[in-house]
Design goal:
This protein is α+β, with helices and mostly antiparallel strands and 161 residues long. It has a single domain (26-160), classed as Sufe protein. Chain: A (Alpha-Beta Complex), CATH 3.90.1010. Helix content is 45%, strand content 17%. It has helices at residues 9-12, 21-36, 84-97, 102-116, 120-123, 141-160, and strands at residues 49-55, 60-69, 72-81. A 3-stranded antiparallel β-sheet has the order 1-2-3, with helices on one face. Strand 2 and strand 3 (72-81) form a beta hairpin. The radius of gyration is 17 Å and the shape is globular. It binds zinc ion. Zinc ion (ZN) binds at residues 55, 58, 60, 82-83, 85-86, 146.
Length: 161
Amino acid sequence: MTAAQTPPIEMLTMEIDRSTPQLGSLYQELILDHYKHPRNRGELEGANAEAHLNNPTCGDQIRLQLRVEAGRIEDARFLGDGCSISQSSASMMTQLLKGKTVEEAEALAARFTQMMHGDPEAARDKALGDLRALAGVSRFPVRVKCALLAWNALTEALKTA
Ligand code: ZN
């Protein structure tokens, strides 16, 4: 018997959803793709609503800018820095927001927040699009703040619209 035994492999892969491992890796690829190639990143000309928030527990920053016309989000861009969860959430969110009314955007923020609090129905809601890739984050309370940062910035920004 050896003095120091390595932990069984199952312990190391416990974080992977075993019921749908393929889905897990597809989701992971999607998150990394948005992180490495963020959509709608940069300064927004003619923005009329914005918010800048940070998440001190992880060091994430998001500055979200919106152009809202007649109650509809015509454009959304962000600048940010931080972990893959926070930045991919912002990238996917800005993609989803374009063309949505303010009410629809608020409903999506509420839905995403439900998903982050572990609501399985929200995690299956097609309205969230690619953002469902982040559903697994709900199991890691510290990372939930990362995922919600862009959405909290959205809520703040909409108050200024
Ligand atoms: Zn983070």
